Amino acid sequence: MNTLISTVRLQQLAFGSGEPLPPDTFTEADIAAAEERYLVPVIGRKLHERLLAGEYASLCDDYLARPLALFTRLLIQPRLDIRTSSCGTSAPDTSWNQPPSDEALRRQCRTLRTQARMLLRRAVKYLEDHHDEFPEYQPDDNILKRCTIDGGFVEIR
Fold this sequence. Notes:
The model has no long low-confidence stretch (mean pLDDT about 85). This protein is mostly helical. Helix 1 (about 5-15) crosses helix 4. The chain has one domain. It has helices spanning about 5-15, 30-45, 45-50, 55-80, 100-130, and strands at about 85, 90, 145-150, 155.
């Protein structure tokens, strides 16, 4: 599967060095799902395909990799907060570690979403300021130009 970032890069960008995770925690399919859900509606299919082909590497590295990693973590975070075994699903609860409250989990996801959105808007600003360098980017196709949700308010343009 071809994605804009690797699982190793995802680990580096979205998880701190103090958050070691087993290698099978996430896959390229998780990254591809985040690309389809969060990036493609903003940057467009044509630019996305060019990025997948290896073009505009600096755009990807400098502006899109970090928000993509955060959006991917946002998608998989619920899976990280629970454990599934033959006995069903449970939250981790040991003598030295307690599961976070529902409110703490919501705050974490809200923070991840806010940071990822801000970085994605930064990437859009860069694309618009350098439109001649990225002719595949069509601002009219950018979903953020039509509808945004900020602070619980839906804004349709």
